[in-house]
Each structure stands twice: as C-alpha cells, then as structure tokens.
Amino acid sequence: MTDFGTNLVAMVTPMQPGGTLSEPGLAGLLDHLLATGCDGLVVGGTTGESPTLTEREAAGLVRSVVAQAGSRARVLAGVGTYDTAASIRRARAAEAAGADGLLLVCPYYSRPTQAGVIAHCLAVADATELPVMLYDVPARAGLAMTPETLVELAAHPRIRAVKDAKGDLFEAMTVMTRTGLAYYCGIDELNLPYLACGAAGLVSVVANVAADRTAALIEAVHRSDLGRAREIQASLLPLTDAIMRSGPGVTMAKAVLAELGVIPHATVRLPLVETTPTNLPDFGQEFEVRAARSA
Predict the structure, then answer these.
(1) Is 90 exceeded by the pLDDT of residue 163?
(2) Which of 82, 135, 183, 194 does the annotation list as catalytic?
(3) Residue 189: how many other CB atoms lie within 10 Å
(4) Is 166 marked active-site?
(5) Is the per-residue pLDDT at 286 higher than 60?
(6) Do residues 95 and 108 lie in contact, with contact meaning Cβ atoms separated by under 8 Å?
(7) Is 163 marked active-site?
(8) How far, in Å, CA of 122 to CA of 168, rounded?
(9) Which residue segments constitute the domains of the chain, with CATH numbers given?
C-alpha cells in the first residue's frame, strides 16, 4: 500500500431529501465500499459535493468516515478551494479529524499563474503533517498544472502523489520518470491505460458502485495479465457510460447507488439537480445482486 492505497473511491456524500447530511446513508455507503474492496476513501472531493459543504460539515464527514473505516482504508480529505487561507483551515480541520492525507485540487476559477499554483500548494502542504495528493483537473479548474510545476512541487517532502484528470499520458509519464510522485488515474474511462503506464492506482467515481471490479483491474495489471485487464475494463463500459458520460458524475453515481439500495436517497444540493440514469436497465440486475451481497 502507498501512502494512500491503490483502489480509491471518490465518495459521494449521502443526503436526506431536504439536503441535510445523512449519517445512516453514510454508514451504509461505507459498509458497501469497504466490503467491495476500497482501500482508500476520498471524502469531500468533487464527487462529494465539496463546493456546497461548510467547513464544519466537511470536518464532520472526515471524522465519521475515519471512525467507521478504522484501519481498513486510508481516508483522504478534499481540502482544496480557490482561497488558500480557507484551504489551510480545511486541511488543519481534516488533520484534527483523523484524516490520513489530503487531496488538494489546483486552485480553480481565479486562474492563477503557475507561480501562484505552486505557492498555494506549498502553503497548504506546510500547514499540516499529512501527505498530500495534488489534483490536476483542468476541465474544472480552468488551468492545468504543468509538468514543470509538478516537478517543483514534488520536492516538498509531504507532496507524494497526483490525481490526474488531465488525460495526457505523455505528460503523466514524463512527471513519473522525473519525480517520485505516485500517479492516480482520475478519469474512469482511462483507468487501464494509466495503470499500464505505471500509475499507482485509481481515484474512481465508478468505484462507488463497482469497487470490486476496479480492484480486480488493478490486480490484473499488477500480474501483467493484460488480457484479463481489458476484459474488466470492457465490462465496466456500460456503468462508466451511465455515470460519467450521461450527466454530472455526482448526480449519476447517486442515482445508481439509490436505485441499487446502497444509499436511501439520490439527493444532491443545488446547483446540481437529482437525475435518473436512463440506461440503468442495461446493467441494473447484475449490479443489484452485487450491491445486495455487499450491504
């Protein structure tokens, strides 16, 4: 296991119909995720609806997940915002709540220079004793972390990994060969290519439903069984399409989990709106059986 595990799930945040956080829903989701093979839990990231979580809610979620997961999985707290001071507060609160590490997204919306990105990330990394996984997601942040920026940040002793949602394998391999950063694929459609190129693992939205399959994919690549890995990746295509390509991943993942009975409600907070995956019948029966067994 790395600092963060290998089969990480970008957890949804279960909510009641009125939008309040659901402790029973969270407990049921965690039972499901731990039973199906997640060894890393990312709490309060994009899929956890971080922009709508208060600092108090975010810290409380970390505390609850740490208490239930115990030693069975690493817990990473999403702490990045476009405000460095707020990110530092969230990082310190996550450390106090027992998190094992931090997920730090590239500062979004304000579109700083690369010098600003570096200063922001170093300030947050300096604020706690926890290892940091950077999150490079230009489609959401409005800018990318350049390879030169990642190489410079890798010199910080607590910056250990990158969640890559950029999708540029050339740049990923360039940084991997020039640093000791552990790479994690942050695009479910590209899990197999990233693993084949040396990624340490995945931070997967699809793993909310199919963590056993993402675990099997990682294992197959580690065994150098490319044929089996291709079979597993292909078997995930309908689910990946439903969750990641039919609408916002957060809303679609919650809709599938609610349909399968893993969480009681598919509630999301505005500006997201609840939805239903129209192609669920294509794979619903198979995943319903697996969800019931892991509940």
Answers:
(1) yes
(2) 135
(3) 16
(4) no
(5) no
(6) no
(7) yes
(8) 24
(9) 7-294 (3.20.20.70)
Q: Which of 108, 109, 163, 183 is catalytic?
A: 163
Residue 281 has pLDDT above 70, yes or no: no
Amino acid type, 280: L
pLDDT beyond 90 at 269: yes
pTM greater than 0.85: yes
Rounded distance between C-alpha atoms, residue 98 and residue 81, angstroms:
20
In 10 A of CB 161, how many CB atoms? Answer: 26
Cα 183 from Cα 163, distance rounded (Å) = 6
Instruction: Encode 236-272 in three state secondary structure.
Output: CHHHHHHHHCCCCHHHHHHHHHHHCCCCCCCCCCCCC
58 closest CA partner among 102, 5, 116 = 102
